[in-house]
Amino acid sequence: MRLPSWIEPAFLRFLLVGAFNTLVGLSAIAFMLHVAGVGYWLSTFLGNAIGALVSYALNKRFTFRSRASVAGSLWKFFAVVLVCYGLAYGFGLFAGRLAAAALPAFPADRLHDAAALVGTGLYTIANYLGHKHFTFRTVDAVTEAGR
Q1: 3-32, pLDDT tens digit by residue?
Q2: Burial 8-39 (b: 16+ CB within 10 A, else e)
Q3: What's the whole-model pTM score?
């Protein structure tokens, strides 16, 4: 079976890395929220920081096969991560609050769990686009875009 042309091999590799990275990050978030008693923002921030370190290493080598220096790409990676984090998890919290307000049966003690799941999905998509087009962009991709 042939995949549609819009599905790039790098995107499939990103999803594989992302599944592992997400499992690591969500596990850390769940541990901090439910075992350590850490609040929503710190839990999601630290969980994503842990996942981001795993993500940087695997995406640089495996997903994008980048030869960019660590000094040239690590700051871009974390800039993309921070922007995506704030936007995705902020919107996730907004969506969780909206769901809780619209659905009276929605358990109030699960608001942050729902927000973290929505935020994680948005964060994953935004990160791929940011890393593809900014962090690990190749000279060839820049040349192609200019044509």
Answers
A1: 777 778 888 898 899 899 889 999 999 999
A2: eebbebbeebbeebbebbbebbeebbeeeebe
A3: 0.71
Interaxial angle between packed helices 111-130 and 9-34, expressed in degrees from 0 to 180 and rounded to the nearest 10: 150
- Please, is 105 exposed, middle or buried when counting C-beta atoms within 10 Å of its C-beta (0-12, 13-18, 19+)? exposed
Check if the beta carbon of residue 46 is closer than 8 Å to that of residue 28.
Answer: yes
Beta-carbon contacts of 95 under 8 Å, excluding residues fewer than 6 positions away, are 114, 115, 118
SS3 for the chain is CCCCCCCCHHHHHHHHHHHHHHHHHHHHHHHHHHCCCCCHHHHHHHHHHHHHHHHHHHHHHHHCCCCCCHHHHHHHHHHHHHHHHHHHHHHHHHHHHHHHHHCCCCCHHHHHHHHHHHHHHHHHHHHHHHHHHHHCCCHHHHHHHHC
Give φ, ψ of 47 to 5 degrees: -60, -40
